[in-house]
Amino acid sequence: MSGAPKRRRPRASPPPGRPRTGARLAAVQALFQSEQTGDPAEAVIEQFVRHRIGAVPGMGGFEEGRVPQADVPLFIAIVRAAAREGAALDQVVRESLVADWPLERIDPVLRALFRAAAAELRDPAGPPARVVINEYLDVAHGFLDAEGVRFANGVLDAMAKRLRPAEFAPAGPAPAGGKAE
How far apart are alpha carbons 138 and 153 in whole angstroms? Predict the structure, then answer.
């Protein structure tokens, strides 16, 4: 990679009818805000739930920082887990980066995205790792150029393999008869 991933202006709206993706997008925004302002996660969660999540008549949409149709319980769970396990999650991200890309060099939006994804991947009862990767790549497309999304994909994949190795283990041989069940 020749330079840091480039941030781009977020797309006009999150994917319609995907409240879990909206929750992940809001979580990335909230984690970014918390890091930038130093506000505790609970204060940022409250701000988002009151002012940014859901449809409010007369208020702008995604381009104004709102995340309509977000799954609020999922949003809260991701932000709380990322805040509670911050040091451990940062270590997972560090271990998933190439040596010449320290965590502190990563764009703050991308750091927030990696922390949110790592929080979900650390939960063994959470959605499958490939689902988490795809969801955060959808979010990344809203903030990063193509090179940045490729970079994010590589780090997300490395984190998922580190946190959920069983999901990436090669499948055993097919049973006799040629078909796997």
Answer: 10
